[in-house]
Amino acid sequence: MRGSGARQGAVAVVPAGGVGARMGSRRPKQYLSLGGVPLLVYTLRVLKACPELGGVVLVVPAGHVAATRGLLARHRVPALDVVEGGVSRQESVWRGLRAVPAGPRWIVVHDG
Question: What is the average per-residue pLDDT within 47-69?
Answer without folding.
Answer: 93
